[in-house]
Write a structure and sequence with these properties.
The complex is a heterodimer of chains A (252) and B (176). By secondary structure, chain A is mainly β. Chain A contains three helices and twelve strands; from the N terminus they run H-E-E-E-E-E-E-E-E-E-H-E-E-E-H. In chain A, the strands form three sheets. In chain A, strands 2, 5, 10, 11 and 12 form a five-stranded mixed beta sheet that branches. Chain A has a four-stranded antiparallel beta sheet with strand order 4-3-8-9, with no helix packed on it. In chain A, a hairpin with an 8-residue loop joins strand 8 and strand 9. The longest helix of chain A is centred in the N-terminal third of the chain and has 11 residues. Chain A is globular and about 60 Å long. Chain A starts with 10 loop residues before the first helix and ends with a helix. In chain B, the strands form two sheets. In chain B, strands 1, 4, 7, 8 and 9 form a five-stranded mixed beta sheet that branches. Chain B has one domain: Aromatic compound dioxygenase (Protocatechuate 3,4-Dioxygenase, subunit A). Chain B has two helices and ten strands; from the N terminus they run E-E-E-E-E-E-H-H-E-E-E-E. The two termini of chain B are 12 Å apart. Classes of the chains: A mainly beta (252), B mainly beta (176). At the A-B interface, strand 1, strand 3, strand 9, helix 2 and strand 12 of A face strand 5, strand 6 and strand 10 of B. Strand 1 of chain A pairs parallel with strand 10 of chain B, so a sheet runs across the interface.
Chain lengths: 252, 176
Amino acid sequence: MGRVSGTLETQAEISAEIGELDGTPGEQPRLDYPPYRSSLLRHPTKSLQHADPETVELWAPCFGQRDVGAAEADLTIQHSGEPIGERIVVSGRILDGDGRPVAHQLVEVWQANAGGRYIHRRDQHPAPLDPNFTGVGRCLTDADGSYRFKTIKPGPYPWRNHLNAWRPAHIHFSLFGTDFTQRLVTQMYFPGDPLFPLDPIYQSITDQKARDRLVALYDHDLTMPEYATGYRWDVVLTGSHRTWTETEEGTS
Amino acid sequence: MTTPGQTVGPFFHDALPYVGGSDLVPPGSAGAVRLHGHVLDGAGDPVPDALLEIWQPDPDGNVVRESGSLRRDGWTFTGWGRAATDPTGYYSFSTLRPGGPDPFWAVTVFARGLTNRLFTRAYLAETDSPFLAGLDPERRGTLIATPDRHGFVFDVRLQGDRETVFLSFPRHRGAD
């Protein structure tokens, strides 16, 4: 990063590196994934230490109505006017590794606008900012683990991992489970994006079936007549380490 | 079939950090301690775009079940906080000492360039915890916070000679 464009690797070079690692088994992204150049000095080189969760790690922080306003789930109403772009609904369920819904838990999202520009001060992509779009939202899941956001379909955008590097359109998601150990930050993508094979972040998950789980499905049942198209994306966190009681099953 | 993680990327600052996020208790209030340090890469350079979250029991060792972390009222201890690193890779929390046997702060680390979150622990002191005892003695110290005037210093080294010990839990196996 920070090199002049003349010394950046080409997409062909990066794609060759992606190809060498593709198909390596693993449900999670590889921490050591050289095609994503910013990872070179930032990935641990030693194996993760096996640990049994201790008391506090068997629980996750609580969030409630006090933390999140109902309007925060609609990214299209945060300013005086309508944001530009394709209005969409994104909805799904958060489940843990045993199929239990993650109820009343915090979901946070952030994304670029329709032109592929983040409001972030470090985003230098010369696409227009939209004065009616911040691209940040939150909600709490319902009792059945479901969440729902209204937003604008984000655009793809260039970055400087290599020459002519473009990120497929995505929405960042931050999720909590019922255990501290289930914390997840990830990205949701849109079906059929031609940039998938070229993107070292998406491809850092080297198992095709695993990375497919980050791609939302178009769902006509979520589409709102004359208002917005709908995408469904369900999330499965890792399993809980807690011994669940019937009371917990009933209330959570 | 677990949903894989992805990097937090460089553009999380308008979404994840929030006012009061790193002050679990007001700085300087009764019992407040500071947990602070730097996040460093494999060259020893600061990581200015990392995000740390801490989760801890109260000083009596109880797991906290209080909401309100995102809109703190100044009186309720929620046990959870979030801090982004500054341009020098520095982060700082104002919080209470975690209680219970072998107390530690449970820590989650996110950063641009880090493809998935990392879990670690910041212990208040070296104890006879079976977990600490089972670690390579050369690396054990990376999980022990160093006391200073107002609290504790805990540096996170993502890579290198003194790389922090990062954790995987049983239900991650096969998934990490």
